[in-house]
Amino acid sequence: MHQIHYRSCSLCEAMCGLQIDLKDGSIQGFKGDPDDKFSRGHICPKGPELKSLYEDPDRIKFPLKRTKSGWESVTWVDALSDIANQLVRIQSEFGNNAVAIYNGNPTVHNYGSMLLGQRFASRLKTKNNFSATSVDQLPHQLLSYLMFGHQLLVPIPDIDHTDFFLILGGNPFASNGSLMSVPDVKKRLKAIQDRGGKYVVVDPRKSETAIHANEHLFIKPGTDAYFLLAVLHFLFEKQLIKPSHLIRNEDLKSLENITKEYSPERVSKITGVSKETIERITFEFANAASAVCYGRVGVSTQEFGAICQWLINVINLVTGNLDQKGGAMFTLPAVDLVGEGSVMRSSPGSFNSYQSRVRKLPEFSEELPVAALAEEILTEGEGKIRALFTSAGNPVLSTPNGTKLDKALASLDFMVSVDFYLNETTKHAHYILPPTSALEHDHYDLIFNVFAVRNTVRYNQPLFSPEPGMLHDWEIFSDLTKRLELTRAGKELPKEIIRTKLTPASIIDHALKSGPYGSKGTPGGEMSLDLLKNNPHGIDLGPLKPSFPDRLYTEDKKIQLIPSILKDDLPRLRRKFNEWEDLASENSHFLLIGRRHLRSNNSWMHNLPKLMTGKPRCTIMIHPDDASTLGILNEEEVIVESSVGKIQIPVEITEELMKGVVSIPHGFGHNRSGTNQKVAKEFSGVSINDLTDDQTIDEFSGNAAFSGIKVLIKKQTA
Ligand SMILES: Nc1nc2c(c(=O)[nH]1)N[C@H]1C(S)=C(S)[C@@H](COP(=O)(O)OP(=O)(O)OC[C@H]3O[C@@H](n4cnc5c(=O)[nH]c(N)nc54)[C@H](O)[C@@H]3O)O[C@H]1N2
Ligand SMILES: Nc1nc2c(c(=O)[nH]1)N[C@H]1C(S)=C(S)[C@@H](COP(=O)(O)OP(=O)(O)OC[C@H]3O[C@@H](n4cnc5c(=O)[nH]c(N)nc54)[C@H](O)[C@@H]3O)O[C@H]1N2
Ligand code: SF4
Ligand SMILES: [Mo]
């Protein structure tokens, strides 16, 4: 029997609609769903590999327990009961903070895991709560909280209407867009050019996105904050600032004072972008009918990640492009996580209300920076982490100084991982609890609709039923939450999985009905889960619309142009500028940056053979002049050394890189022992995060600083 199934791809932020052709229950073909209201038929090579993930022989389906003689299968009930007992025992002996949590990136692509996982985490009542946020978008959320009053009021580029798109540290051609859910980004960027607009990329590498841009500016890694300050300096100097009733005049004056010392001329010396170029780009930006400045991973994960995101918001605001068509806008999703009175309103945020034990790093929204995780495990004393619960994450490969974390995890008294792979992180667990894979559960995009370039909504049912006895992420968390409570109360634990009426779908149904399109409805009818089930291609809810001051959640309904707490970070900015000036003449080291590849996804899709074909990807890219100075040849293996580690990696000589800069992709390093991902091992590569330093962070926000790590490159024989 022939059947067509529609679902949204959950692998990256683009939320492409997939059309899956089934014959007698098996997948015959995959293509982009041409009727999807958002993605209009777009798909990338990863989407169809959901099938390979489903079929992967290395995928774990039932719980595993680590014993002296190796991994053993155990029943869910035995595993979950023992875990509840151990967690309660450790917390009662050593305090709640002795148990830590780490949530990885796929959590936000899995609404069941998000909803029920959060409940579980809140019941653990630990301050040692970590996630991939602090190796990624923390600065965006922090600045949204400080400036607009809610961490999820993240400004999204209105790519479909803008005339001038200035991109710093983002490579949407490879990543398919981030904090800008945008299927088919190539077409949409091309459309800007076709309507007479322009897009400009600022990046130390001439990335795939930069190659097609109207203009690409090389910038020295880690210096973007100064570039952005020079832009503002010039806007003030030429009186190109547009007033807004949403900001206080005195704030504008202070801003002018802050930017005074960062003239384009002075800044050009450390950024490598000429004075004339900074001035011209600024002028074009200010004079475009609409314009938007956007900065992503490359500028968030650097020593001034928070300052960068602040300045980007400020530039959009003072040029009249914030909350305006063609500028940086805010979404109104069908399940509203921001609006006051919404049943699903998430916490607006909090900052520095407590600190990590060892290094006193600031909390953000009840999470601590993951750069502190290893030291919190390794440093003796009261409050030391003794047990860790990871879910959908691989921090040994994805967080700074993975070598140190690897050692730390090996020293834990107890560890549990919710994951379907035995990888570099989960190998340290005492229990691996495997959830179903994407095609076996339903899907609603709770998070990426909040970050999308257009308001759309879609819900999809599972394609396959899981094998009997398998559990979804949310079922694992739901049972464990209950089991934890029963254990704490000294009650006997049930001998079967604990089921409750609270399912992710029921939560969403309620939120949809009471949300912004509930009673107001859509062209298709009143919003509900049933409506979405009857519209498997999704429903278009229209372009982004201006929403301030209604959806501005600061106390005085003004935008905080200069959040007072951020002023504390300005002296560091000045100090570092002077250091950069001193460094300008020194050139023995290289500045290391990362990169992403379209056929990869962080550390975890390297076990899918079709995605691993083609040229070797885990190489160090270097400019030909630098290679010739060092006397190294293409494909030669070199030693790369940083303050924390050393790796050996083949060279890829390319003019894409700025001189003095080298690039290594993250997520590789599958050569560690004790894992079981056969394909990934074959293409193991090495981990860039064995070079990045857990002590080098954005000191203000606590976010990891991956961009601009100093490294030495040596010939193997030297
Ligand atoms: N194919 C694929 N897609 C993905 C992912 C993946 O791993 N693979 N990961 C997903 C995730 S988790 C995320 S967060 C997003 C990220 O999405 P993007 O932010 O678009 O990520 P990248 O492709 O890493 O682009 C970062 C760019 O910043 C540049 N850069 C590095 N350092 C600096 C600097 O100091 N200054 C400036 N101006 N630029 C710098 C790099 O050269 C690179 O081109 O992608 C998501 N999508
Ligand atoms: N040097 C450097 N390091 C980086 C970055 C960089 O640009 N440079 N980027 C950073 C960024 S932006 C991010 S987001 C992080 C990502 O960091 P992490 O989230 O820690 O790592 P991932 O590689 O995404 O690992 C995801 C894990 O989740 C599992 N998984 C997949 N789907 C599911 C699911 O539905 N349920 C469960 N339970 N498990 C699932 C996979 O098997 C895998 O083990 O890496 C960061 N690290
Ligand atoms: S672009 Fe992202 S959402 Fe679209 S098919 Fe590829 S991985 Fe899936
Ligand atoms: Mo990310």
Describe this structure in words.
The protein has 22 helices and 28 strands. It starts with a strand and ends with a strand. It is 29% helix and 17% strand. It is α/β, with parallel strands linked by helices. The strands form 8 sheets. The protein has a 7-stranded mixed beta sheet, with helices on one face. Strands 24-26-25-28-23-27 form a 6-stranded mixed beta sheet. Strands 11-10-9-12 form a 4-stranded parallel beta sheet. The model has no long low-confidence stretch (mean pLDDT 97). The protein has 4 domains: 2-55, Phosphorylase Kinase, domain 1, CATH 3.30.200.210; 64-135 and 341-543, Rossmann fold, CATH 3.40.50.740; 155-329, Dimethylsulfoxide Reductase, domain 2, CATH 3.40.228; 570-715, Barwin-like endoglucanases, CATH 2.40.40. The protein binds ligand MGD (2 copies), iron/sulfur cluster and molybdenum atom. One of its GO terms (molecular function) is oxidoreductase activity. InterPro entries: Asp_de-COase-like_dom_sf, MoPterin_dinucl-bd_dom, Mopterin_OxRdtase, Mopterin_OxRdtase_4Fe-4S_dom, Mopterin_OxRdtase_prok_CS, Prok_Mopterin_Oxidored. Belongs to the prokaryotic molybdopterin-containing oxidoreductase family. It comes from Leptospira meyeri. Residues 2-58 form the 4Fe-4S Mo/W bis-MGD-type domain.
